[in-house]
Amino acid sequence: MTRHDPSTDEPAAAPAAQARALSGAQGPSGGEPSGELGGKPVGAVLHAVRLLQVLADSPGPLGVTAAARQARVNPSTAFQILRTLVRGGLVAFDPALKAYSPGLGLLALSRSLLGRDYTDLLRPELVRLATNHECLFALWRLADERAVLIDRALADTPVRLDIQVTQRIPSLIGAVGRVVAARLALPEDELRRRFSHLRWQTPLSFEDYLREVEEARGCGYGLDLGNLYTGIHSAAAVVCDDRARPFLGISAITLAQSSPPDRLRAMGEELAALCRTASGIPGR
C-alpha cells in the first residue's frame, strides 16, 4: 500500500489500487462460500450464546429470571436452555442459591485457543470483515511507538487496495493512532510533542487531532478521513492486554468515494465490538 522509507519509518507514498481479476470467492472461514452464512440463524443457539455471555460477564451466579432478563430471552426458554447447558457441563448450577454460573466445560472448550497466537485467532475475522464489507482490513502489532502490519485480508473485488506486510508507521498516526492515543491517555504536552513528528499527506491541526482522539475515546474506534493518505478513508480499533494497554490494532481501509461516513462508522463500531471481545485476556 505504501513504499517504506527505512530511514524514517514514515509512509513514503500514497497507496495504489491494484487491479486484479479475482476468482474463487472465499467466505469468512477462508474456504467456505460467503453465501453459506446467509441463512436464518437458529434461535435456540442465539439464546444459548446470549445466556452464556451474560453469565460470563456477571460478577456472581444469576437466577433464571435475572439471566433471562439480561439476555433478553423468555424465562421459560432460558430455564430449559440453562438446564441443557448444565447437563453439557458448560454451566454450573448452585442448588442452594438456585443460581447459574459458567461451568468447567467452557474452560475445556477454550483450552485449544489459549495457547494460540492472536494472529491465528483473528485471521478468520479479518477475512470475514473483508468479505462482508468489500474492503481491505489490516492487523497491526503495536510496540515501541510503532505499528507494524502483521496480517491483512483483501477485498474480493476486481479493483482493491493492498498493503505490504511488515509496513511500519508511527503508532499515533492514522485511524489506529487516534484510538491508540485515546487508550494511552498521554498528558497533552507529551501527545503534542509526538504529534509534531507525525507526517500526514493532508495535515490537520493538533487541536483537530486532539478532538478526534477524544471522539475515539468515547466511541471506541478512530477515523481517518484522508489525512494520512489523500483519498483514503479508514476506521480502526485496538485490542488491549489484561492491563488495558493496546497491543494490536485492526483497521478498515477503503477509497474515499466508496466509504460514506455512515458506512465507515458502522465498520468502526463492528471493529470496536470485535476488539472488546478480544481484549483483556490474562497473560496477553
Automatic annotation (TrEMBL):
Domain spans labelled HTH iclR-type = 42-104
Q: Where is the composition biased (Gly residues)?
A: 27-39
Q: Where is the IclR-ED domain?
A: 105-284
Query: What would you give as a GO molecular function for this chain, any one?
Result: DNA-binding transcription factor activity
Keyword Protease included in the entry's annotation: no
Keyword Acetylation tagged: no
For this UniProt record, the keywords arranged alphabetically read as follows: DNA-binding, Transcription, Transcription regulation
Q: Which PROSITE patterns match?
A: HTH_ICLR, ICLR_ED
Q: Which SUPFAM superfamilies match?
A: GAF domain-like, Winged helix' DNA-binding domain
Q: Which GO terms describe its biological process?
A: negative regulation of DNA-templated transcription
Region Disordered: which residues? 1-39
Q: Where is the composition biased (Low complexity)?
A: 12-25
Matching entries from InterPro entries are given as: GAF-like_dom_sf, HTH_MetabolicPath_Reg, Tscrpt_reg_IclR_C, Tscrpt_reg_IclR_N, WH-like_DNA-bd_sf, WH_DNA-bd_sf
State the protein's name: Transcriptional regulator, IclR family
Q: Which top-level group of life is the source organism from?
A: Bacteria
**Sorted alphabetically, which Gene3D superfamilies does this protein's record hold?**
3.30.450.40, Winged helix-like DNA-binding domain superfamily/Winged helix DNA-binding domain (1.10.10.10)
